Every structure is written in structure tokens, then in C-alpha cells.
Amino acid sequence: MTDSEIIAAVNAIFVEQFELDPAELGPDRKIFDDLGLDSLDIVDLMVALQRKFGIPLRQNEEIRKIVTLGDVYNFFIRLEASRRATEG
Amino acid sequence: MSLRLVWLNAGIYGSLGLVTVLFLVVFTIPFALLYWSLLLLRRDPAPWFRRLIYLYGRTVLAVAVRPFLRVRYLPLAPTPTGGAVLVFNHRSASDAFLLAALKRAQLVQTVNFWPYRLPLFGFFARHAGYLDSTRLSPDELTSRLETLLQQNVAVAAFPEGTRSGSRQLNQFHSAIFRAAQRCGAPLYPGCIVGNEQLPDRRFRFRCRGGVIRLRLLPPVPPEEVASLTPFVLKQRTRERIKQAITQLEGAVDV
Lengths: 88, 254
What we know:
The complex is a heterodimer.
Chain A: H1 3-18, H2 39-53, H3 69-87
Helix pairs in contact in A: 1-2, 1-3
Chain B: H1 3-40, H2 46-65, E1 70-73, E2 84-88, H3 95-98, E3 107-111, H4 113-116, H5 121-128, E4 131-132, H6 138-150, E5 154-157, H7 175-183, E6 187-193, E7 211-216, H8 222-227, H9 230-249
Parallel strand pairs in B: 1-7, 2-5, 2-6, 3-4, 3-5
Antiparallel strand pairs in B: 6-7
């Protein structure tokens, strides 16, 4: 997946799962303060992201540091890059 | 601090203290006797604690608050008589007292950990079955809510989690919406405006007009409660409350 495909896939989850307006989504948007998700909603988000990307996230420590939507994009972009490096 | 604010703070806290002391003097012995009788009869005393809290709240509003502030209850729906979940915005500590205006004796509130541990109020809150939202897991909250609904008790919650102390409506937590969905509970939004400084977050009364308005909105349609995701349900309910706040803040008293 390219970076823009990853960003589109993450945005699609926010639109489908949380019915957020695509115009609201951007890398600077804070997941808690701006988008209104709480810790329980984050669990739903993790499930949807796991399903979409096929990667187990529960044990991942880096996921706890996520604050903005941009952090989510970068998290999956890095995962994809490391996956490609491992395969290559 | 101006002379008016000194008078307001001294007056409200003074009359609140006086009403509380008089209330305790009048009710302690009869209620203690009732409490022990209920324990001997193996009956649950919680409904009686809720009745006493309701009576105290009504007395505080009628006697201690009325000389200083006006409280106007402007419902758009009748107060539910059975089990239901009521969600309100949360600007001030006075919200807990103002819910007495709903005229619903069998009501418990979800509260933060600190009011739950107050020496006097905390004692009554715990015995009345109030819910400490900071200590209950989602499953425990659902289980407690289910029990209360079966007993026809209404549960009032403040999904912002803490007092905003301003006119801002903070983001909502979803726990109470998830529990309401799992229990199939009727969900009533409501709002309270005009009390953001009564008292403020540091418990100082700052009078700005002195009119508090409280409104209960029609319930969220049950099919909406059942079919939406918890996130969407909480966001739509928040939007309903936000619109009601805008309407009430633009209201003119006649």
C-alpha cells in the first residue's frame, strides 16, 4: 500500500465506523479532543484497524502514544515500510 | 470581590448550611429508626435514602436557593416515571441539586469519585445506590444500571465526566451510552444553563443574571438507541443537548 492509500484506508474507517465528516479528518486533528473518541471508542477503532490492515495491535506499545490522526497515519505507514523491508 | 458577590456567597453557603443542619435535626432520628427497621425486615433501604435525598434537594432549592437565584424548569418532555437514563451537560456542582427539579424521587446519579467520598453527602450517595463512574468497569456499570432499571429507578449521568465551569460543552464519554444500549433503556437528553458560575470550579458563587434554566428533552427514539454505534449515539445526543443549550441561552424570561 502506498502512503496515500494508507491514509485513505484510515480515513475510511473513521467515516464508516464513526460517521465522521471526511472534511473533519486531517493529520492535526486530535483523536480525543477534536474527534470526540474516548478510551472505549478507541477499542472499537483498534478492532476496525486490525480488521482493515490484518495486523494485531493489542500488544503494540507504540499505539498508546497516538494523539492525533496524523499519528495513526504515520503508525501504519511505518508498519507498512517495515513489512516491505522484511519482505524485500 | 464585590460586596454583592460576598453577600451572594455568604448567603447561599450560609442558608445551605442552615438548611442542612435543620434537615439533619428533623430527620436523623426518624430516619435512623426507619433504617434499622428496614434492616431488621431485610428490606432494601436504598429507595428511602433516595426519597430523603430528593426531599433534601427540593428543600434546598425552595428554601436555601430561592432568595438568591431563580430556577426555571422548562421541560419539553414529561419526567419519565419508569426506569430511564437521563444525560445532562455538566457545568457546575449545583447540577446535582438541580436535578431535584425533575420531581423524580427514585433517581440516582453517576458521580465522580470525590462527591462519593464526601463525609455527609457521600454517605447518603453510597447508601442511595449512586454510581461511582470512575470505579466501575463497563460490565459493572451495565449490571448496576440493569438492576436499577428493573427497580424503575432513573439514572442521571453527566457524560462530560467533570464540570466544565464554563459555557463550553466538552466531549462526551461513551460508557453510559453503551450501558443504556445494552440494557435497552430509554434515553433522555437534558440540559442545564445559567449555573456555570454558580458555583464556579473553585466553588465560588459568581452571579451573572441569577437565572438557572433546566430542560428535559424528548427521549432519543428507541430504534436509534438500538441501531447506532455507541460513538454515533453519544455524538448525536451531544448535538441534541448542544442545540437545546443554544435555545435556552437565547430564552427570555416572561
